Amino acid sequence: MGLALMATMALAGCDTSLRDAYESKYAASVGMMTAQNRALRSIPLPHERVTVAVYGLPDLTGQYKEDDTGQNLSRAVTQAGAAVLIKALQDAGERRWFSVLDRSNLDNILRERQIVTEMRRIYRNESQIDPKVLGPLDHSGILIEGEITGYDTNTMTGGLGARYLGIGGHRRWKLDTVTVSLRAVSATTSEVLASVVVRKPIASYATQGNVFTYIALDELVEAEAGYAMNEPKQIAVEQAVEKAVMALVAEGAMAGLWKFKDHAAGQHYMASYTAQKFDGDVPHRALRPKAPNTRNTAIPATVPHRPVARPATVRRVSERRVAPVRTPSTSAPVRTAPAQRPTAPPDNPDSDEVVG
């Protein structure tokens, strides 16, 4: 009995230690909002929501992650650029700027629609699906396209330190840079309506202090402490994409693609963006950029086709019965008039008598 109790307590202790090992003091959170994301959500409101389609935001850097031993097979930046871009577009003005159509997984959507069509055809014998059951896909006149075009490591490095009588410390830092390109493209003419490029530095630094000194002839003291901070590359890419969306809103407004609800707030927003873009030295041409050739980017929504009923008067006339035309029977004999015989000319050519 005692051995069984001890075994049960030992097993319970193992379960507790395993649970503590898997429980982290850093819990999952949805509230880690950056200053860049707050700025994106506080954009001045638009005149109306703009429907845009997103197909992807691929990584074109070709860079692999670096560590102390060299490069490994992991990519340096995220491969889920489409998800980051869709989230940034939805966050613009708290979902008031863009209605986003996800085309990154279009094959899945089309396959699911085919399943609906086939099931109703097999089990309900429907040759044509009712639009109320499976309506047309929504479409957009503007595509939001872009790429992660660059990732440069160690663009800047530095550090400082000091030591006195075996006591000292030092600090080292470095900067990487990620570059994101974003543009709005017309779906009707394929013209690039607006484009922006954003570069985001990624900071990493380490601070360390140490002691190495003798406190007596044969007594040595050695100690060290430090910490390091590496900015997450995922958050850096998110901030770069969010900044690109903010810049694209300003570029699109200046190009006439969309308008702000409050004209004064919109002018202030575009002026702040232009000043930041040109580092305060704004050229005169930048104040009045040339509009794109594509004037109207809106595409009418698809409406299911319905047969048009004919008017009642037209239907009655077309359905009126017409009496059949009687034709002579081919079996009955046809009577014809006898042919006239030719008459001989009169003997007296001067006579006026006409021979009948």
Automatic annotation (TrEMBL):
Residues 283-356 are annotated as: Disordered. Residues 303-315, 332-342 have a biased composition (Low complexity). Pfam families: CsgG. Keywords: Cell membrane, Lipoprotein, Membrane, Palmitate, Signal. One of its GO terms (cellular component) is outer membrane-bounded periplasmic space. InterPro entries: Curli_assmbl/transp-comp_CsgG (IPR005534). It comes from the Bacteria. The keyword Magnesium does not apply. This is Curlin. It comes from Pseudoponticoccus marisrubri. The lineage of its organism: Bacteria, Pseudomonadati, Pseudomonadota, Alphaproteobacteria, Rhodobacterales.
